[in-house]
């Protein structure tokens, strides 16, 4: 028997916090038993739209207990003391499960309906944690005010999001989530974003009689669970509701739907819209728990509420499934200085990184100015929980996710100078000791190298030289050992020890430079003839760097006459100051543009020979890095492989000689473009691809006049006889391939 409840003001005063279990228990206890309570939208207004949505399960008539085996499983979360469930039951829908976290109301409802509606189930349960229900348990979830109660203004979206995640989990594929709501902006905003991907969504206003229009309009939002990743615009019936609904509220909803549909149309149009981590979690690109070969998507990782920083990121699932994956998921951090490099900025380059990382899924994270001066440990700590949400498979069973970053393996670093020029930008000269570097230089315990780094290619070594002890400094060292042990003199000793090192110009730090030397086997006979006759072979090198290659070439092949062209005077200054670079009659430096130098040389040759062909062999080496790394061509700059310059290079070589290019490109299409252009200009083309390196050295010649192509073994032997420094020509030349 129903009890008489206290005044309404006293009862409503108990609900200061709609998310508090204790408050609801007190609310229902004060209301008493045996009485239903509706916050809004009563059965007469709901009957027609709900029965139309759920289907004719009560065909036998309301009050008939027979519903049939095909009746849908319906979940009513936060059921409270509403009469909605009993009305549906009486309409023929028997398989209804009601949950509420208030024991008081569940006990009351169970007593009220146990006999008359025996098939209806009741559970004391928090709707934000419905782990007692298996995935895909229900055909329909019918929420009447539950989400609204969780989404109090100012309370945030945490509980609402948690509840919707559970609702989506327990709903079957093709099932319907029906939300009866006042559609306040913060509630509607959550619904629109949470059901954006993979759900067919519609909205309508619940009819109210004109004489009984409520100040608060109720809306029925229906979400049908579909295929992950599919985006559909929202179907709205609100513009037809003016006669029976509060149009002030409806117009606000219509505007929100219009804005949302614009977003959805942009996603479904095929445009690579920038997604958020939450979008990915919601199924914007499909099931994240499954690795989909070749799947790639840019997105924003992190939000102000969930992380310290936000990051631009790319998710990449390896193109091929293989048993050789080392990691099921990995993170690759790209520093700001390298973000524009082709390897990281282009899709093709990113797939190269995935392959190298040996990860089934790689999340590439790009740092920018927001992350400047932030310790890497802090960034990794910030990223870790975000990445866990992107992990495929069962995270509990998988190995830890590794963080990867382009590193140089340096154990010890001593920066000698940092300099900046308008041409090259920031440059660093440093002495380094690598990890696991064995020392074999007398009293030096470990090998030490001097490096020139260009800031525009952070992480890449532009030039590297081996440091060795200068035997002429021994006497200076003895004097330093006998000096007084004051702090000042100890500092002088240290300085003297540093000054006792010099560059070993018989060492080539770059393997591609060794390949250039080995490739000279192609013209070994001409080099040998020039050496025997005392003549010099004209050799032009575009690009000085630290000067290590031309210094090696001068000492290794005395028969070559070298002219180096360098655009940046500061580069030449650093080469002289720190790398022992020096000029003489055999080795000269020209400061200026390399392309113009070749053009001027061609013009000078024509003037000197009056248009007749030159009988002297010439060698032209292009060893210049590019300042524009976005093109996919790291070396050389693109204008060095365009037709105008290639034809000038051919003219410079006249009837023979060798045109050599150090080509660095991770893009197969860019590489093929360069090779195609060279084939169109030069009659002969050879390639020497370095193992485990991205450098490829190309050798081109306008004719076979000076080429030793019939007996390469004999040519290798001739070159070895000429070389003054050791070079493993035999090993290199085995990799030489004829392209044309």
UniProtKB/TrEMBL annotation:
Domain spans labelled Methyltransferase type: 78-179
Bias type Basic residues, positions: 487-497
Listed Basic and acidic residues bias regions: 468-480
Pfam families associated with the record: Methyltransf_11 (PF08241), Spermine_synth (PF01564)
Region (Disordered): 468-498
Gene Ontology terms describing biological process: methylation
Name of the featured protein: Methyltransferase type 11 domain-containing protein
Species assigned in the record: Panicum virgatum
